[in-house]
Design goal:
Layout: H1 7-17, H2 26-29, H3 42-57, E1 61-70, H4 91-105, E2 111-121, E3 128-138, E4 154-156, H5 163-166, H6 168-171, H7 176-185
Antiparallel strand pairs: 1-2, 2-3, 3-4
Length: about 190
C-alpha cells in the first residue's frame, strides 16, 4: 500500500520501483481515514502514515513526507508545504504564493531544497525509514509543465533545468524522493517483503 492520496506521488513511486513491487493506492484498499501527520519532522510523519495504513489494512505500507525549504525563509514552508494556504489551495496557488513571498521577503536569495523521508512499515516488523534531499534555486516565472507541486519553479542544481522541464525519467535520477527511496532500498527491506 502506498500511503498517499496524491496521484502524482503514486505515479512517481511506481516509476521508481518499476516492476519490483506492485503498489496499491489508498482507494484500492478502501482506506477512508485522514492520514496522520503528528510529527515535527518529515521522518516522524512518514512513519506515522505508514504505520496507520499498515494497521488498517494488514499490508506492508510505504509512505513519504516531503516539502520544499527556502533557505532565506528559515526553511519555510517545510513540513507545511502542501497545506500552508489551506486545504482548498491548488498546487498552482501554493507555487505562486511561495514565489510571491520569496520576492517580498528575500528577493536576493532564492536557494531552496526539496526534502523527503520515506517509511516502510510491515506487519510484525520494525518500520524502516530513509531520507533524501536535492538542492536548487527558485525561478520566477515557473518553467515547464511536468512534475507537480513546486516543480516548475525548482531549478535543480544537478540538472540545470526545473523539475517542471526535466521530464519524469530525468527528474527521477536526482529527486529527493528518488534519493530517499534508493536509500531505503539499500537497506535490503524490499527483499524481505
Amino acid at each position: 500500500m502506498l500511503a498517499t492520496g496524491n496521484k502524482g506521488k503514486l505515479a512517481e513511486f511506481q516509476r521508481l520501483l518499476g516492476d519490483r513491487v506492485e503498489l496499491q493506492s489508498l482507494d484500492d484498499a478502501g482506506y477512508q481515514h485522514e492520514l496522520p501527520e503528528p510529527g515535527t519532522t518529515y521522518e516522524d510523519n512518514a512513519r506515522a502514515k505508514a504505520e496507520a495504513v499498515r494497521d488498517a489494512t494488514g499490508m506492508p505500507a510505504l509512505a513519504d513526507d516531503s516539502g520544499i525549504e527556502v533557505a532565506a525563509l528559515g526553511g519555510w514552508p517545510g513540513l507545511h508545504s502542501a497545506r500552508w494556504m489551506g486545504e482548498e489551495a491548488t498546487d498552482r496557488d501554493r507555487l505562486l504564493g511561495l514565489l510571491a513571498r520569496v520576492a517580498a521577503q528575500a528577493p536576493g536569495d532564492r536557494r531552496a531544497r526539496y526534502v523527503a523521508a520515506v517509511a516502510l512499515s510491515r506487519p510484525g516488523q520494525s518500520t524502516v525509514t530513509a531520507t533524501g534531499t536535492c538542492n536548487g534555486v527558485l525561478v520566477d516565472p515557473p518553467r515547464g509543465t511536468g512534475g507537480f507541486g513546486y516543480d516548475p519553479a525548482f531549478l535543480s542544481d544537478d540538472l540545470g533545468v526545473t523539475f517542471g522541464e526535466a521530464g519524469d525519467a530525468l527528474k527521477d535520477t536526482v529527486s529527493h524522493r528518488a534519493r530517499a527511496l534508493r536509500a531505503l532500498l539499500d537497506t535490503g527491506v524490499l527483499e524481505q517483503l
